[in-house]
Amino acid sequence: MNDLFLNIEFKAGKSYQQQIREKLVELITSDQFGDRPLPSSRKMAQQLGVSRNTVVLVYESLVDEGYLVAHERSGFFVNPEVKQDSQFNLVQLHPQQQTFAPKWNQRLSTKPSDFSTLDKDKAWMSYEFPFIYGQIDTKDFPIYQWRECARASQSRNSLHEWVEDYVDADDPELITQIRQQVLSKRGITAQPDEILLTMGTQNSLFLLASLLSNSNTVVGIENPGWPDFHHAFHYAGAKTKPIRVDEQGISTGKALKGCDYVCVTPSHHYPTTVTMSMERRKALLQQASTDDFVIIEDDYDSEVNFSESPLPALKSLDTNGRVVYTGSLSKSLSPGIRTGYLVADKDLIKELRALRRLNYRHPPTNNQRVTAQFIAQGYHDAHIRRMRKVLESKWTLMDEGLKNNLNDCRVFSTPGSFCFWIELPEQLPSQLLVEKAAEQRMLVESGDKLFAGPNPPRNYIRLGFTAIAAEKIEPGIIMLGDLIRQLSGSCHRRKNAG
């Protein structure tokens, strides 16, 4: 039994006390001790190579929480009440084989797992050159300021502001901060009843698709574009229509005829980074009114835009209520914050709120209050100002490196964007490059799944730079350029030989 404790491998990020406690709770709840006493604090400390006081504090905390009981001169034992719960858990962990279990595949009305997904390597931090989009360099996160706001919002005097059930309401303080400090910077004016908090842009889109779609609904979506635009509306029963994107943004005119909704990323098109021109924005808004469709704006990549004169949000130009706006704090702070917001007519927000209540009532109120504090204290704006400098410097390194080392490729990027869209030589499949790059500790993303329609091109990749350290950009780009030339020549020779 005691040998089990020798298997604790202490890891950075948690104290010894935390890790010992977690291991003991795991062993206690799986009834590994039975009626035997736990090892003495002295023996446990020797086994683990920690101070005796560390083990004593863990034992005492487990007594306080009711996991252990202390018997004078006999040591620490598992609380009998916990043992009863553990025995029940063991029964649940090893149920008898059920012959009459339901056949779930026959009961599913749809299979979301069949939808194509972007290949996101969960071990991205293990790569020396992570040229990926959607992640951050953890060194850039304002941990001390965030921690300060968390402590303030979770103080006893503030506890009542977020521990209660809000039912379907949002934290009024966060709504105020988003109105005054976030939306205003995008040129958007909105009343509190025109804003709904969500768990991010993807959640916002899913709510909209679920509420607004049926089998007769047609949705125009940029091509190439975000696959989950298609998936969310397909799941809701709608038809999607790929719409070509040019150097000014999504095509207008005949291409949008028959659409009920049009999804756009005007600040920086996903994934080509094209910024929709003011002329195209006006044309899109005019056609929305003329042809009676609604625009769903994903203000993608706008939060930390470091371009000298970023255009205002499409929603800010909307005078007819034709734009539903979705935003997020994921890019400016962290994907893990999971805080998004919808801005739309109050009647639509009312129904979206009711639909959200059926899903999860509201986002966690403790997260809402910490985020509200973070914005109110000025930390969000300060962080954005700092990140603009960091990301502009990285963008410049990427731009120079790609110009010098990827001469055989077409490179697309707009200042202020967080990635570069690369057209590889025609004979080089992007998936082959992704696989070979990984062997050299480079993580790049194929663009294959970002195209809709028949016979999509297979020679595009996307290079992000938010997660990679600045000093790794130039050597990584040099290695990538060498690999592209090597693979391109090999593919060309095979093609000629065939």
TrEMBL record:
* Key words of the record: Aminotransferase, DNA-binding, Pyridoxal phosphate, Transcription, Transcription regulation, Transferase
CDD domains for this protein: AAT_like, WHTH_GntR
Concerning InterPro entries, the annotation shows: Aminotransferase_I/II_large, HTH_trans_reg/aminotransferase, PyrdxlP-dep_Trfase, PyrdxlP-dep_Trfase_major, Tscrpt_reg_HTH_GntR, WH-like_DNA-bd_sf, WH_DNA-bd_sf
Q: Name one GO molecular function term.
A: pyridoxal phosphate binding
Using the record's annotation, list all stretches that form the HTH gntR-type domain. Answer: 14-81
Enumerate the SMART domains for this protein: HTH_GNTR
Xref: Pfam families: Aminotran_1_2, GntR
Q: Can you tell me where the transmembrane regions are? A: none
Q: Which PROSITE patterns match?
A: HTH_GNTR
Superkingdom, natural source: Bacteria
Into which family does the record put it?
In the C-terminal section; belongs to the class-I pyridoxal-phosphate-dependent aminotransferase family.
Q: What's the protein name?
A: GntR family transcriptional regulator/MocR family aminotransferase
Q: Which organism is it from?
A: Reinekea marinisedimentorum
